[in-house]
Amino acid sequence: DNIYQVYEDEIQALEEEIKLLTEKYEDIQQESLSLSDEEILKSTQSFEREMQGDSVSDLKDQLESLEADLSFLMKLTGLQFTSHSQKTLERTKEKTVQKHRLSGNCHSLSFQLEFQLLEMQSKEKVSAVVSDLSIVMESREDSDVSKFVSSIEEQRNLVTFFRSLSTYAEWFERRRWTFLHFK
């Protein structure tokens, strides 16, 4: 008897809650019907313009900032990338394998890189490992450059490659201008 009374009380409370929610819903429906279609359309368009205007101007500002940063880095390092392609070879929840091809020049030296990038994701961090690195440079006939490129390919260290390439290409360009001056 007591258990049935508890259930009946719960049912009655739920019926009252349903009645209140139905009344609220009907009130909201009446308010929205009182607005004309034109008013709704104007307010929607106004809201969309505000959102688009802010986001477009923010994106333009970000793009200009990134272009300025890129220009500064190109002047500082002499590195200029002319093409990049990327192909995803394998993708799972924990890892992604991509094949990258980069080409560009540093001062007057051109280069091409091809490598695979393995990105592994754990709970807290993402780690990336470079494999199958292949570097092609125009001045590879120089034995020192050839040794350097071979060691970088073995180490698979792109940061060291770009830092060293920037310094080497800058001095290569200076030597070339000096020899041209004395000719």
TrEMBL record:
Signal sequence interval, chain numbering: none
Domain of life: Eukaryota
GO annotations of cellular component type: chromosome, centromeric region; nucleus
Keywords assigned by UniProt, alphabetized: Coiled coil
A Pfam family hit: CENP-P
GO biological processes: CENP-A containing chromatin assembly
Residue ranges of coiled coil: 4-76
Listed name of the protein: CENPP protein
Annotated source species: Serilophus lunatus
Gene from which this protein is expressed: Cenpp
